[in-house]
Amino acid sequence: MVRKKKEPPSFVEKMRRFVHAGIAGSAVPNRIGNNLDNLSSMEERVSKILGIVNRLNRTATSMLFFVMYDIESNKVRRLVVKYLQRKGCVRVQKSIFLADLEIAEYNNIRNDLAEVQAAYENNDSILVVPISSDYLRSMKIIGQKIELDVIMHSKNTLFF
After folding, report:
1. Cβ-contact 142, 159 below 8 angstroms
2. Is the CB of residue 137 less than 8 Å from the CB of residue 152?
3. CA-CA distance, 44 to 116, in Å (whole number)?
4. Which of 1, 25, 32, 64 counts the highest number of beta carbons within 10 A?
């Protein structure tokens, strides 16, 4: 007898299970930093950003956007990070991701994160912010020794 392989639960379904497992109404945990050993160096992250910004084969249906969050629960935060990485988002900072995905995928991510946010009682915030490639090209990194203006031949500034 051959058993059918079960489909893994969706991200939203996993989050609903956590709610039922007791995450709702739990005490606010102390903020313990994520293990960021696997976070790329700033140079690598800037290189990924430049690859997204300067991509020549962008389709008319693709969309650039940031996902930024402030999530109290370590467990929920880790799951959101894994979800965003699986979807193809690039981690820019600890709680900021950048993506260049199809509009349909942008809508899926936005809807999934809205459902997760509504699934349990929390003080979290998640921002999904569309951005134009022109604005992204005009960004300026402050506090790092990377001459992004020189790399991108840009004099405009966007703080993030």
Report:
1. yes
2. yes
3. 30
4. 64
pTM over 0.70: no
Q: How far is CA 91 from the centre of its chain?
A: 6
- For residues 68 and 128, what is the distance between their CA atoms, to the nearest angstrom? 7
- Can you tell me whether residue 85 is helix, strand or coil? helix
Phi-psi region of 147 (alpha: psi -120 to 50; beta: other; left: phi over 0): beta
pLDDT digit string, tens, across residues 15-63: 777 766 665 554 444 444 455 556 677 677 767 766 676 666 778 888 8
The rounded distance, in Å, linking the Cα atoms of 117 and 98 is: 20
3-state secondary structure of 14: helix
CA 128, CA 107: separation in Å to the nearest integer?
10
